[in-house]
Amino acid sequence: MTNELSKSKYFFLILILGTLTALGPFSIDMYLPGFPAIGKDLGVDPTRVALSLSSFFIGISAGQLLYGPLLDRFGRKKPLYIGLVLYVISSIGCMYISSLNGLIILRFIQAIGSCAAAVASVAMVRDLFPVKDNAKVFALLMLVVGTSPMIAPTVGSYVTSAFSWHAVFLILGIMGALILIATILWLPESYQPDTSMSLKPGPIISNFLSVVSEPQFYTYTFAGAISFSGLFAYVSASPQVFMDIYKLSDKAYGWIFAGLSVGLIGSSQVNSQLLKRFSSQQIVPVALVCQTITGLIFIVCAWNNFLSLAGIIVLLFIYLCCLGFINPNTSALSLAPFSKNAGSASSLMGATQMGIGALASTVVSLYNTHTATPMAITMCGTSLLALFILLVCRRNIKTAVAAVPGAATIAH
């Protein structure tokens, strides 16, 4: 089936998978400009509202471990339906919340629902497309996903200004409902239920252990997840940095956030072209080195108060460009060794990414120094650690999954 996909079918599948993947980022980015308004209405400091973002990251991390075995046991679509319904219900609930603790809890539940879409979409890439094309497909998904930070905060700022932050969650609920309808009507089931897959804790843990014991998986999953957690630190700290320190309006913040996302989108598409000449293993370390250097410059400038608004925008743009090269390649390399249990592998990869991201987000939220230094330290620290893990652990990869020369050249 995969090799016979027409161009129109290929595009349509990418579009649906992209909307599934984008649901989580939209849920993260769209309410960011409303932090001051949410804090005012709930009677808390706007920086404390970021804890609801951390709870969302924790929910996605925990939920992906749940959905992985379910996707392998029952097929991809049934667990996906359950997750999307849960997402819609919790989104509507967020509209009527009156306390920060309530928002934190509902955001956690909303994340449990949205992560079904994230895990299923990644697993279906592995199901529907050849291994040699996976990095290209992930880069295309990055293009669809990358529009969310361009659109979501800008739309969120105007919705918050024109109506209120409550309307943002109404829109998210409607989006979830529309994606559910599209999934039911047009997304094919890509994996037949595996009745031999046990849902008892023992076999599930054993299955996860077999996945994480694969050197190629743990090398690129941990390196990619830790590197990507720098993005979570940026997302959590950026409302305070831009709207509190640099005194920008919510609308101006939305436009800057959108502009910075161009770096992530553009570099992921440049990555697709580079894969015609270089392997994913060659691209990842170079991008990590560049990201680390950018992080070090960021720390020096933030620590010494050298950062103008233009300076911090340039540094963040370069940092996000590096992520556009790292994430598609580490994702493809992590999943390449798996076929039968791709759902469990994708959920474990996603849980690792979101769990580490939640930690980075929480660290930035707790250290409110009214400077960009906590964000700079966290972003640089994640890059340094990711580079260290890559250089140390990739020595354990003995036999790579064969790549097809000239295509995606994912030298797995």
TrEMBL record:
It is found in: Cell membrane. The keyword Phosphoprotein does not apply. GO terms for molecular function: sodium:proton antiporter activity; xenobiotic transmembrane transporter activity. It is a multi-pass membrane protein. GO terms for cellular component: plasma membrane. GO terms for biological process: xenobiotic detoxification by transmembrane export across the plasma membrane. SUPFAM superfamilies: MFS general substrate transporter (SSF103473). The chain crosses the membrane at residues 10-28, 48-67, 79-98, 137-159, 165-187, 217-237, 252-271, 283-300, 306-326, 373-393. It holds the Pfam family MFS_1. Residues 13-398 form the Major facilitator superfamily (MFS) profile domain. The keyword Transmembrane helix applies. Keywords: Cell membrane, Membrane, Transmembrane, Transmembrane helix, Transport. Its main location: membrane. PANTHER family: MAJOR FACILITATOR SUPERFAMILY, POLYAMINE TRANSPORTER 2-RELATED. Belongs to the major facilitator superfamily. Bcr/CmlA family. This is MFS transporter, DHA1 family, bicyclomycin/chloramphenicol resistance protein.
